[in-house]
Amino acid sequence: GAGVSQSPRYKVAKRGQDVALRCDPISGHVSLFWYQQALGQGPEFLTYFQNEAQLDKSGLPSDRFFAERPEGSVSTLKIQRTQQEDSAVYLCASSTRTRKLSDTQYFGPGTRLTVL
Amino acid sequence: DAKTTQPPSMDCAEGRAANLPCNHSTISGNEYVYWYRQIHSQGPQYIIHGLKNNETNEMASLIITEDRKSSTLILPHATLRDTAVYYCIVDGGSQGNLIFGKGTKLSVKP
């Protein structure tokens, strides 16, 4: 079956531009996570959705980062006025249930954002 | 910060067993040990998890010491496609989000 998909796979933005990154989770998955992965580091948590509700956005690095999941399926991570330090791979993951570490998270391939 | 310590890199010959160690000396009694791996240019992939007993599935085996302060992931017959960064994870955030360390970069060589 289809896994988690993300688009675009690669995005180059000029500093100051706004970008939108899309995540299509596995159908029926309740939980959706966004992670940020800097070069040579493990992924770091950004935000969490349970269906359409954003229950945790404690990992978002600044108010330039905004995420939504209006119908409880597709999610979009938006970064306004991009800065060079935003350059990273942005990963989306989904899982079947809610808030349990033991639920396997299925990751998308990520979007590599490069800010020039 | 992650509660695990892993060697930054390891090599393994193709066809041999790859044994990846992980130290988690501060693990709590009800915390599981999870292993994910990340092949280049892909998202992380779940491998296996366990609490106390050793576990085996089609991908790997997980050996957890009796005191639960360390564990070993075993890939019994490594192939070139097993070249990846392997993450040992014992903790998560309040939403069930994974807390990754830097992992071990495993290179399987012909």
Give the topology:
The complex is a heterodimer of chains A (116) and B (110).
Chain A: E1 5-7, E2 10-13, E3 19-24, E4 31-37, E5 44-50, E6 53-56, E7 65-68, E8 75-79, E9 88-95, E10 106-107, E11 111-115
Parallel strand pairs in A: 2-11
Antiparallel strand pairs in A: 1-3, 3-8, 4-5, 4-9, 5-6, 7-8, 9-10, 9-11
Chain B: E1 9-13, E2 18-23, E3 33-38, E4 45-50, E5 55-56, E6 61-64, E7 70-75, E8 84-89, E9 104-109
Using brief descriptors, characterize the structure shown:
heterodimer, A: 116 residues, mainly beta, seven-stranded mixed β-sheet, four-stranded antiparallel β-sheet, B: 110 residues, five-stranded mixed β-sheet
On the 0 to 100 scale, the average pLDDT of chain B is 93
The tally of strands of chain B reads 9
**Mass-distribution shape of chain B:** globular
Distance between the termini of chain B: 35 Å
Helix content of chain B: under 10%
Count of runs of 4 or more consecutive helical residues of chain B? 0
Q: Looking across the biggest beta sheet of chain B, what order are the strands in?
A: 1-9-8-3-4
Order of helices and strands of chain B: EEEEEEEEE
- The percent range for strand residues of chain A is over 45%
> Helix segment count of chain A?
0
Considering residues with a beta carbon less than 8 A from a beta carbon on another chain, report the largest interface and each chain's count.
A-B, 31 and 24 residues
Mean pLDDT of chain A: 94
Largest sheet of chain B: 5 strands, mixed
The proportion of strand residues of chain B reads 35-45%
Broad structural category of chain A: mainly beta
